[in-house]
Design a protein that fits this description.
The chain starts with 13 loop residues before the first helix and ends with a helix. Helix 9 packs across helix 11. The protein has 13 helices and 9 strands. The protein folds into 2 domains: about 220 residues, Rossmann fold (3-Layer(aba) Sandwich), CATH 3.40.50.300; about 90 residues, Magnesium chelatase subunit I, C-Terminal domain (Helicase, Ruva Protein, domain 3). The strands form 3 sheets. It has a 5-stranded parallel β-sheet, with helices on one face. A two-stranded antiparallel sheet has the order 3-4. It has a two-stranded antiparallel ribbon with strand order 6-7. The chain is of the alpha/beta class.
């Protein structure tokens, strides 16, 4: 998620970091005009965007997952696309398909919704694994291959997928490889009484999301993403992340992958930006670990969340 014209080889300047921080704060504030409460969740979503990752929102129906995704998309200049995942959805419905044009006698490629800057995959676990897997290449390599031809996706490319945690007999588990491609897995939960009352007041005369407009442009976003990825991470911090990942592998059948370690580093860099720093602290790693690591851990009787907690408590901090 970087522009080739953006060069930060000497590291980001104070102005770069300040601008990136202001961008995150502006998007978060704009989303909060629609989504009541859940400040931490909104912040996690926006910092994932800054880190060049993707988000999986997993919760019960009706708590605002789709509204949150739409609000983030509306706050960022660029093209928004949406896929409603259903049992009969085909991979080509996501990536696009070659269609024969009788007038020209040639096949023409019709882009699928994956060719947006921000793509909402709504209730992704309602589609079978084959269709879910249509996003694997897109999320990892920001490209899709159809009929042997590879096409690049827009820059930036950000997936926000929602997942229904009920009606288990009508949903499909996400393939492990796809779950691993989501930088963070987040939940929203029910609002408290005051928040829900405030929410009801906002929708009396229509939904506020209909009036939401972009507060940042794509060029600003690309610059902020480049700034985040250039934040300094000392060897001791990188080794700390490695030891955390190793702990999960030693205490579960499937622990955190190297992709997960990279995701933790990238989000820690974004967290440093949010604090206005040009370097990563172990605190940044610890604050991100609970939403970056657990969904990648499988096969532990103690549970993935507990494994991550134990890792943070056990692994020595530099």
């Amino acid at each position: 998620m970087t522009d080739p014209d953006i060069s930060l080889q000497n590291g980001p300047s104070e102005d770069d970091i300040a601008a990136a921080r202001e961008l995150v704060e502006a998007v978060v504030a704009n989303v909060e005009n629609v989504v009541v409460g859940n400040h931490k969740t909104i912040e996690h979503v926006v910092t994932t965007l800054l880190a060049g990752g993707h988000v999986l929102l997993e919760d019960v129906p009706g708590v605002g997952k789709t509204v949150l995704a739409r609000s983030v998309a509306a706050s960022v200049g660029g093209e928004f696309s949406r896929v409603q995942f259903t049992p009969d959805l085909l991979p080509a419905d996501v990536t696009g398909v070659n269609v024969y044009n009788e007038a020209t006698g040639e096949f023409e490629f019709r882009q699928g919704p994956v060719f947006g800057n921000v793509m909402l995959g709504d209730e992704i676990n309602r589609a079978p694994p084959k269709t879910q897997s249509a996003l694997l290449e897109a999320m990892e390599e920001t490209q899709v291959t159809v009929d042997g031809e590879t096409r690049p996706l827009p820059d930036p490319f950000f997936v926000i997928a929602t997942q229904n945690t009920v009606e288990g007999d009508r949903t499909y588990d996400l393939p492990v490889a796809e779950r691993d491609r989501f930088t963070k897995q987040l939940t929203m939960g029910y609002p408290d009484g005051n928040e829900e009352t405030k929410l009801l007041g906002r929708v009396v005369d229509g939904h506020p999301i209909d009036e939401l407009s972009a507060v940042v442009g794509l060029s600003e976003l690309r610059r902020a993403c480049a700034t985040s990825s250039a934040i300094r991470a000392e060897p001791s911090v990188r080794e700390y992340i490695t030891r955390l990942a190793a702990y999960t592998r030693e205490h579960a059948e499937l622990g955190v992958s190297p992709r997960g370690s990279i995701a933790l580093l990238r989000t820690a860099q974004a967290r440093a930006v949010l604090d206005g720093r040009e370097y990563v602290l172990p605190d940044d790693v610890q604050r991100e670990a609970s939403v970056v690591l657990p969904h990648r851990i499988i096969g532990s009787e103690r549970g993935a969340d507990r494994i991550v907690t134990e890792a943070l408590e056990t692994v020595s901090v530099p």
